[in-house]
Write a structure and sequence with these properties.
Blueprint lengths: L3 E5 L3 H13 L3 E5 L2 H11 L3 E5 L7 H10 L6 E5 L4 H10 L3 E4 L4 H17 L11 E4 L2 E4 L4 E4 L2 E2 L4 H12 L5 E2 H8 L8 H15 L9 E4 L3 E4 L3
Parallel strand pairs: 1-2, 1-3, 3-4, 4-5
Antiparallel strand pairs: 6-7, 7-8, 8-9, 10-12, 11-12
Helix pairs in contact: 3-4, 5-7, 6-7, 6-8, 7-8
Length: 233
């Protein structure tokens, strides 16, 4: 089923760029630029995700969010805030926003946060597609994702919990491309200091433990400029 996104943003150049990029992801997008149009459009479109600016003509984003949650609307909401507006961000989270992103922002971070919210929403449904993996054996290495340990023929391997959590994310999406920023969000949270380079370092450790040649990998494949894919096992 195609993802439906409702974008509530009054900056025409920003909105145009976001709409183009969301459509490039294969998502359907409805855009409104005036706060007074938001709730009516929400009721008509029933989106999977709302991206909501705080500063809008007409109703503010905070007023819109307050009315949504008061009416029992549970759709995930990502709020866009002006840089440095800490009070607005705190109020937005207290009103029921699921995440926030201060302007200006990097497109890839926005997309990573949107994907994370969509995954969380899907995982909350009874028909969720991603099955939690509790353990996995690959080659001669056994991963236990409950104790966050990895064991080889000679005993415990020198892998950190973050290394193993990174592998767990790949294992739960094996056969699929998992983007670096998505791994950061899953493992450390977007508010951490972790970066795409941090993910690369975890992959180096995992490949070393598995004996996976990075030039001709058997298990963990690099998708250049994007992320990693674990071979289906």
């Amino acid at each position: 089923m195609t993802v439906q996104v409702l974008l509530i943003e009054d900056d025409p150049s920003l909105a145009r760029g976001l709409v183009d990029n969301f459509r490039a992801e294969g998502w359907e997008v409805r855009h409104v630029s005036h706060g007074d149009q938001a709730l009516q459009t929400l009721e008509k479109t029933r989106p999977d995700l709302v991206i909501l600016d705080i500063l809008l003509p007409g109703r503010s984003g905070l007023d819109i969010l307050r009315e949504m949650r008061s009416a029992g609307e549970t759709v995930p909401v990502l709020m866009l805030t002006a840089k440095g507006e800490v009070v607005d961000r705190v109020v937005g989270l207290e009103l029921g926003a699921d995440d926030y992103l201060p302007k200006p922002f990097a497109l890839q971070e926005l997309l990573a946060r949107v994907r994370a919210l969509l995954r969380r929403s899907a995982n909350g449904n009874a028909d969720k597609e991603t099955l939690e993996v509790r353990e996995l054996t690959l080659g001669n290495v056994h991963f236990d994702f409950q104790s966050f340990t990895a064991t080889g023929p000679e005993g415990l391997l020198d892998l950190t919990p973050y290394d193993i959590q990174t592998f767990k994310v790949l294992a739960e999406h094996r056969g699929e491309l998992v983007r670096r920023l998505d791994i950061v969000e899953e493992v450390s949270g977007m508010d951490s200091l972790a970066t795409a380079r941090t993910v690369d370092n975890h992959i180096v450790s995992l490949r070393r433990a598995l004996g996976d040649d990075p030039r001709r990998p058997r298990w963990i494949h690099t998708v250049r400029g994007e992320g990693y894919r674990l071979a289906i096992v």
